[in-house]
Amino acid sequence: MKKETSKITKETETTAESIAADAVESMAEDAIETTAAQTTAKEPGFDAFVDTLPIMGKGMLGIFFVTLVIIGAIYLLGSIKKKEDK
Questions:
Q1: For the whole prediction, is pTM greater than 0.85?
Q2: So what's the pLDDT on residue 26?
Q3: In Å, how far are 7, 12, 14, 57, 77 from 3, measured between CA atoms?
Q4: Helix and strand tally (H, E) in the chain?
């Protein structure tokens, strides 16, 4: 019985070692593939920046128009106040 238990234990250890070795090998292959894909791709930061330029341009244009409206409102209020003072 002890021999049988010892045999099962050795088989289990061998199976566990082979599973661990397969897992490590698989992770290493994935890491190599990921690194290769990253080095061949364009720089994502620059592409993302170029894609956002139209959105940023619209935002800046909106800020410009709001500033003009505020300046116009202040000018109108100033001219109304001058007319009241006369």
A1: no
A2: 79
A3: 6, 14, 16, 79, 101
A4: 2, 0
